[in-house]
Specification:
about 25% strand, about 80 residues, globular, four-stranded mixed sheet, alpha+beta
Length: about 80
């Protein structure tokens, strides 16, 4: 089955996945964990700003200092979620 769960892409006996169970797309714009978190935040926020200007919506921001993680969950104009890290 494909990520989109298109019925024509199902194998015999497979059931389409519920849309609410799909994993969001992850887009690495910050450079990865080898880049200092402050620089990753700047890069992610620059991309968030650009995407908002073209119609995306910020849904949530995760800033975990202890785990050295920073990512933003976004939604495109069609309602598809994706994450920028």
């Amino acid at each position: 089955m494909t990520h989109l769960g298109v019925p024509g892409d199902l194998r015999a006996g497979e059931q389409p996945r519920r849309p609410d169970l799909f994993e969001p797309l992850w887009v690495r714009v910050g450079g990865g964990l080898e880049v200092p978190v402050a620089l990753r935040k700047q890069r992610v926020e620059a991309e968030v700003d650009r995407l908002i200007r073209v119609g995306a919506t910020r849904l949530r921001t995760f800033d975990e200092v202890v785990a050295d993680r920073y990512f933003v969950v976004m939604q495109d104009p069609e309602g598809n979620e994706f994450c920028l890290s």
